[in-house]
């Protein structure tokens, strides 16, 4: 059996500093991060909004210091969510 402790520890270190948030697989939505239970009692970073990621892949979350834009994360943080949906694609992609 592989020891997952070092993997969990390195991932915690990546997201452990104040102000470090996450994007999922180079996405545009910035999520707040909290620690959650993983395998064998290890704690690892997870999205505060609990948006699903297909399996827990340590490379799926990319650190960023950009402001949180996820409406669900902002509500959980006690902030005010944006009043409009963030577009999935740029306006130029649909000719608008």
Summarize the structure.
The protein has 96 residues and is α+β, with helices and mostly antiparallel strands.
Topology of helices and strands:
Layout (H helix, E strand, L loop, with lengths): L4 H11 L5 E4 L8 E5 L5 E5 L13 E4 L6 H6 L20
Antiparallel strand pairs: 1-4, 2-3
Give the overall pLDDT as a whole number.
81
> Which structural class do the helices and strands define?
alpha+beta
Oligomer: single chain
The domain tally reads 1
Widest sheet: strand ordering: 1-4
Count of DSSP H/I helices: 2
What does this structure look like?
The chain starts with a helix and ends in a 20-residue tail after the last helix. 16% of the residues are buried. Strands 1-4 form a two-stranded antiparallel ribbon. A two-stranded antiparallel sheet has the order 2-3. Helix content is 18%, strand content 19%. The chain has one domain.
